[in-house]
Write a structure and sequence with these properties.
Order of helices and strands of chain A: EEEEEEEEEEEE
Helix content of chain B: under 10%
Structural class of chain B: mainly beta
Mean pLDDT of chain A: 90
Radius of gyration of chain A: 13 Å
Shape of chain B: globular
Number of helices of chain B: 0
Distance between the termini of chain A: 41 Å
Radius of gyration of chain B: 14 Å
Largest sheet of chain A: 6 strands, mixed
Low-confidence stretches of chain A: none
Largest interface: A-B, 24 and 26 residues
Mean pLDDT of chain B: 90
Oligomer: heterodimer
Number of strands of chain B: 10
Largest sheet of chain B: 6 strands, mixed
Chain lengths: 112, 117
């Protein structure tokens, strides 16, 4: 069975500081992994996805994530936080049956 | 083209009433998903439709919940005899439904916020 765990339900960073949102997955097969962002009062948008082509995946808005099989992790990073990055972030894994399992989300606050 | 749309955007109902939530997927997408997002929680999978195959209903929390998808397009999620714990945002997503190694990406609608009084 597949699942994801997001460590830290709330993360606060200063504007301009590094953003690191953690995601660990559990999968019995090579996973497909995703990060989604949900801005206030909006639907979920795809940030990036890992499809086994490259371990470092670049997404929109300057975000990237690195797949580390040895650590079963897919952490999301951004070198310099912007006020507009304040949102809820969800990590997800896709099963072989095309179901998606989401983490409980991490709320990112950016402090000016 | 247009994205995934859901209606209504907000629904307030009284305990014990039935509600219907509608999802219009992206044209041509064969896969459709329903999720529930409760306050402070992640997305809870409810049901998954793929083409003409039998839907995966493994996430439905009780027999008060049902969903159908007519003509392989529009889907309706029905909650009978609503309870206060059903209050949540119900999200619909669709994807192209490709397989064979291609990675499917979900596109989400804006959700329906259901409040049961």
């Amino acid at each position: 069975a597949q699942s994801v765990t997001q460590l830290g339900s709330h993360v606060s960073v200063s504007e301009g500081a590094l953003v690191l949102l953690r995601c660990n997955y559990s999968s019995s097969v090579p996973p497909y992994l995703f990060w989604y962002v949900q801005y206030p009062n909006q639907g979920l948008q795809l940030l990036l996805k890992y499809t086994s082509a490259a371990t470092l995946v670049k997404g929109i808005n300057g975000f990237e994530a690195e797949f580390k099989k040895s650590e079963t992790s897919f952490h999301l990073t951004k070198p310099s936080a912007h006020m507009s990055d304040a949102a809820e972030y969800f990590c997800a894994v896709r099963s072989t049956g095309n179901q998606f399992y989401f983490g409980t989300g991490t709320s990112l606050t950016v402090i000016p | 083209g247009a994205g995934v749309s859901q209606s209504p955007s907000n629904k307030v109902t009284e305990k014990g009433k039935d509600v219907e939530l509608r999802c219009d997927p992206i044209s041509g997408h064969t896969a459709l998903y329903w999720y529930r997002q409760s306050l402070g929680q992640g997305l809870e999978f409810l049901i998954y439709f793929q083409g003409n195959s039998a839907p995966d209903k493994s996430g439905l929390p009780s027999d008060r919940f049902s969903a159908e998808r007519t003509g392989g397009s529009v889907s309706t999620l029905t909650i009978q005899r609503t309870q206060q714990e059903d209050s949540a945002v119900y999200l619909c997503a669709s994807s192209s439904g490709t397989s064979g190694g291609a990675v499917d990406t979900q596109y989400f609608g804006p959700g329906t916020r259901l409040t049961v009084l």
